[in-house]
Amino acid sequence: MSEQDMLFDESGNLSQSAPTNASNEAPSKWKILIVDDEEGVHTITKLALNRTQFAGKGLSFLSAYNVAQAKKILSSENDIAVILLDVVMETEEAGLEVAEYIRDVLNNHLIRIILRTGQPGTIPEKDIIEQYDINDYREKTELTKRKLHSTVYTALRSYRDMLALENHKIGLEKVIAATANILKQKSMASFAQGVLEQVSSLLYMNDGTMQPEIKGVLAEKDSDDVHVLAQVGDVSAQAFQSSISQEELDVIEDSDQALHYQEDNICHISKMNGVETILNITGKHEFKDVDVHLIEMFCNNMAIALDNLRLNDSLRNTQKEIVYAICGLAESRSKETGNHVRRVAYYSRLMAEEIGLSPNQCEELFYAAPLHDIGKISVPDYILNKPDRLNDEEWELMKKHTTVGENCLKCSHQPVMQAGAIIASQHHENWNGHGYPQGLSGTDIHIYGRIVALADVFDALASKRCYKEPWGEEEIVAYIHKQSGVKFDPQLVEIFERRQADFFRILQEYDDNQSYLSSV
Amino acid sequence: MSEQDMLFDESGNLSQSAPTNASNEAPSKWKILIVDDEEGVHTITKLALNRTQFAGKGLSFLSAYNVAQAKKILSSENDIAVILLDVVMETEEAGLEVAEYIRDVLNNHLIRIILRTGQPGTIPEKDIIEQYDINDYREKTELTKRKLHSTVYTALRSYRDMLALENHKIGLEKVIAATANILKQKSMASFAQGVLEQVSSLLYMNDGTMQPEIKGVLAEKDSDDVHVLAQVGDVSAQAFQSSISQEELDVIEDSDQALHYQEDNICHISKMNGVETILNITGKHEFKDVDVHLIEMFCNNMAIALDNLRLNDSLRNTQKEIVYAICGLAESRSKETGNHVRRVAYYSRLMAEEIGLSPNQCEELFYAAPLHDIGKISVPDYILNKPDRLNDEEWELMKKHTTVGENCLKCSHQPVMQAGAIIASQHHENWNGHGYPQGLSGTDIHIYGRIVALADVFDALASKRCYKEPWGEEEIVAYIHKQSGVKFDPQLVEIFERRQADFFRILQEYDDNQSYLSSV
């Protein structure tokens, strides 16, 4: 009873829970569960299979003597390869109950079930074979040492093949989930980071090694410049750049994609629209064919998704730059510089983030804010450039730039244009209701209008205009403070005062002596 | 010898090639290949297994009597489930040669190999089991009718399970390839069509039925309107719209995605950023759990990809509308209407397509052409609106709008802006070299510049301006014809003359009495 004592205490409970291997990977030995109520059968089985080896690994044995023990072991060990299962134990059909439990309750379809019977039971063999999802049915008498070896050996072979298919299936499902995951990333930085994380998890899903052991770099190569998008693990971008040989880069000249691997290094290179993307993974991991296959499929989807993301980035940048360029040109009629509209975009986004608008709204405002003065295109030159005070008639014409801008933008259904229409219309409204064109007050003024109003005035005060020199920092701060609750939303004035340093940083960063597109 | 005669002629060749089932799906009967040099074994095996049924299907038998025949059948029939394989035939190891051929040459790892031996061969059982990838090893004497049934039955069970895993694996690989396929689609129309095609091929990959039997609709629902994006098969969009119950649409209020299926109908609904996407598939096909699983994974990726595509569309439209709106406003200073820039975009794309520019270039030109007169923003009002002839000084200022526009746009690296800079700079150059600002001639003028030059003049002639009434159709055509090789590229004048009707259609479609954003 020594084997039994090792696993069970007197009450028949497991005396210590066996270490479970949560992964689907085969353990270092093939686990065989022997279920029989006769101790002799356990002993002789282990003796017979003592020296059996399959695929370079030996066997380890677990023993159960009744249904309850068998169920307990089966539910805590999910990597048993083969069960040698006695039919008649405490009941005539005890073994069949265990077989049903494995398939129907545990939903384990991998473990190979070899039914062994000492005496013909009440159910004929044909019925057992057909009604229970078992893999072999043998009489104990026919199982000589030689036959037992053959039976267990072929069962292990089946188990290994099914496990490989199952693992491959899991890998493919992970590729699909990983693709969905990276497709959701809208920025290049989060996309690149997502790709490396997904690759790591693809590679290490069945492996006991720690994920941090992976080192990965995702980079893009444009003309001659290699630019690292993201990296995982302790790898210097420089070392990576020099490790890519020219041959590796040349090999894809003829095809769109190429995957190289050797020992612990996988390199995938893809080329789309003139940009090469290089994914390099190294780690204390030997890359198997199945890994390479999964990585290849994933990288194929990644390359296409990345191309879409680049298109997206390019559309966004084009939109931004067109607005900066044209609005800058429009501002230049009144001798202002193009950087005014750009700075207003940055101050506005800063306030929007600080006041807690959603990321979507912050972005919308960022792209729409430069459109605030677009209506000035229709204001005559002589009014725009008059250094003296405007007379009443001129002032009425000047004020019309708000509604002209609104009408120009509001026909569109595009969110950025809608936001632009609101901003054009409301950026001269005052918190106290004394602004124009509508005389709206307080929160009747859209938050976009309130934000751009402060951003526009701050930048005007800090800049040189045809009718004034730039104000000093203290003067500006004092003026804005005084206008809290008058011209400006008090909450935004508070934000301005808290983030004052950032306002002046933006003012300097995009000052009027710089080309307004230089750092787009 | 009747069975043998049926399959083989006297020379031992297959007398008629058996119909192959190229798919991996199990056929209507399980195919069992008996390989044995004794006719009696064939007869008795078939007799013993005559009434064996597994998973509702009976068995069909193929017979081979030597290695050559076995190889021939195995290589033409890829859906044999089980082979009962004699070891000793024309040689001591003939059966082992067949086993090796199956695994190593045919690379068939699904077929279950049951080795049967009449006499102990020269190689011990242990070695055979370990060295050959077989699934069972039996002595003929031990295989009673009952035992043969058990052995074949459990082998069929293994085969079915592995086939299911293998088919699932193939399905998953198809999902990945299908995702890559739809990710490559850049337009909504080709994307939607691609989705339906990929779903059809996912559903029918293992099925003998014809793909045309599928009916599918991909639609989106925005607020209250259902809009069909693509459809496959004979299904009316109206019928589809009324077939979706409000309950189905309501069910996703709480979650992002939902999949319903019943008998021959699958409906997947996903919701992202306020737009519901509905994919409905019906067909003479009973949807199985595995189908549903694959469709669900595919639809998940599709929904995300569609969201990205919508974002791209929206960015593209925003860019176009901002340019129309602002350039329209700029044109309005000289009392022209916003629709001028819009029409110039359409004439230009028409000529670009006709002259054979790439789709990329056509699109680039379409988005950049409206920027041609952007430099006029800096031309003083009194010059723009002077009804009389400009004096030399005024004319020099007017001509500067080309280089001002170029300088405004050329700082950007974005392709659309680069194209805009070229167009702003060159749209007043003449084919004969007498244009401005540089006096370029012939093909030294960029094709974009040559195209927009003709488009701009055509539209100016056909429109009312502050200094002129619109010209009549004949006058316009005569003028452009006369300017071939003078102002305009002769090849473009030819295109104009060939597509004249389309030019006047565009002129009418976006005429000056329409809101310039009405049909964006």
Automatic annotation (TrEMBL), chains A, B:
Region of interest called Disordered, as start-end residue ranges on this chain: 1-24
Biased composition (Polar residues): 12-24
Keywords noted in UniProt: Phosphoprotein
One family name in Pfam for this protein: DUF3369
Domain HD-GYP: 315-512
Alphabetical list of PROSITE patterns matching this protein: HD, HD_GYP, RESPONSE_REGULATORY
InterPro entries given in the database record: CheY-like_superfamily, Cyclic_di-GMP/3'3'-cGAMP_PDE, DUF3369, HD/PDEase_dom, HD_domain, HD_GYP_dom, Sig_transdc_resp-reg_receiver
Modified residues (4-aspartylphosphate): D86
Domain named Response regulatory: residues: 31-155
Chain ranges of the HD domain: 337-461
PANTHER family in the cross-refs: 3'3'-CGAMP-SPECIFIC PHOSPHODIESTERASE 2 (PTHR45228:SF9), CYCLIC DI-GMP PHOSPHODIESTERASE TM_0186-RELATED (PTHR45228)
Name of the molecule in the record: DUF3369 domain-containing protein
Record organism: Vibrio rhizosphaerae
